[in-house]
TrEMBL record:
GO molecular function, one term: RNA methyltransferase activity
The keyword Transcription is annotated on this UniProt entry: no
Residue stretches making up the RNA 2-O ribose methyltransferase substrate binding domain: 32-103
Protein's name according to its UniProt entry: 23S rRNA (Guanosine2251-2'-O)-methyltransferase
Keyword Transferase attached: yes
GO biological process: methylation; RNA processing
Taxonomic classification: Bacteria, Pseudomonadati, Bacteroidota, Cytophagia, Cytophagales
Length: 276
């Protein structure tokens, strides 16, 4: 029976989460630094930052200049999102410490060629689910991928969940964070590396005899929501699709990544190039 003296007593004080919805992401305390001075000192240190969130209305030239120097993208968010990260006084800024050491793509390419190996890279365009990313990293390491490239903005946080889901693979594989994947694709092509997009929009079947996944190569996998961005699709050397024979029109991105990477492994293990 409703309390007539205070009608709000019997009303829920929260908005219920829709059934099946994921709980809001909350980083672990040891993954997070908050507060203006603490974030400034972290930016000045040798620690690498995975994400840097600032309240939309906040302006702090020191943080903004340091972030620019370290090539850390600032993500502008409402204060409510920062409140979900911590109940303490964050002063409008929170940064997440990277669980891996990011490396330069140019250094990786040079090292691969110096070792006499064939480049085999994986680019992830806006893969935002942490567990998908961790599963992809695990498969990538198992298939001999030398480097995973992610964008500076719109990528999953490489946090403890990602590390756990990767089963430690992220400790054994290079990760590059690039501010602009279109520039990255251009650089890879200039370096003699063929860029292949895996997309359902392609007319070429992954298992056609003319599909060649040998040689220096970078494979792009796209967002869980809308796939590879159109500007990247226009830039790649070629694209392929994984055949789907059932009623469901798509694969989970981590599963799709496994399919194409192991097809590349199969082709690379043959004594003669299957494209010939």
């Amino acid at each position: 029976m409703e309390n007539r003296r205070n009608p709000r007593v019997n009303r829920p004080s929260y908005k219920p989460r829709p059934a099946g919805a994921k709980p809001p992401y909350r980083p672990q305390p040891d993954e997070m630094v908050f507060g203006i001075q603490s974030v400034i000192e972290t930016l000045k240190s040798d620690q690498q930052i995975d994400k840097l969130y600032m309240e939309k209305e906040l302006s702090n030239p020191d943080i903004q200049n340091l972030a620019f120097q370290k090539r850390v993208t600032i993500q502008r968010v409402p204060s409510e999102r920062l409140d979900r990260f911590t109940r303490k006084n964050h002063q409008g800024v929170v940064c997440l410490i990277a669980q891996v050491q990011y490396v330069k793509l140019s250094n990786v390419i040079a090292d691969v060629f110096e070792r006499g190996e064939t480049p085999f890279f994986l680019l992830l365009d806006r893969i935002t689910d942490v567990r998908n990313f961790g599963a992809i990293a695990r498969t990538a390491e198992c298939t001999g991928i030398q480097c995973i490239v992610i964008p500076g903005r719109g990528a999953a946080a490489i946090n403890s969940d990602a590390m756990k889901t990767s089963s430690g693979a992220l400790n054994h594989i290079s990760v590059c964070r690039e501010p602009d994947l279109t520039e990255t694709v251009k650089y890879l092509k200039e370096s003699g590396i063929t860029v292949v997009a895996c997309t359902e929009k392609s007319a070429r079947d992954l298992y056609e005899r003319t599909t060649d996944l040998t040689g220096p190569m970078a494979i792009i996998m796209g967002s869980e929501e809308d796939g590879i961005s159109p500007e990247l699709l226009r830039m790649v050397d070629t694209h392929v699709k994984i055949p789907l024979l059932g009623a469901v029109g798509s694969l989970n991105v981590s599963v799709a990544t496994g399919v194409i990477l192991y097809e590349a492994v199969r082709q690379r293990s043959l004594p003669v190039n299957v494209a010939q």
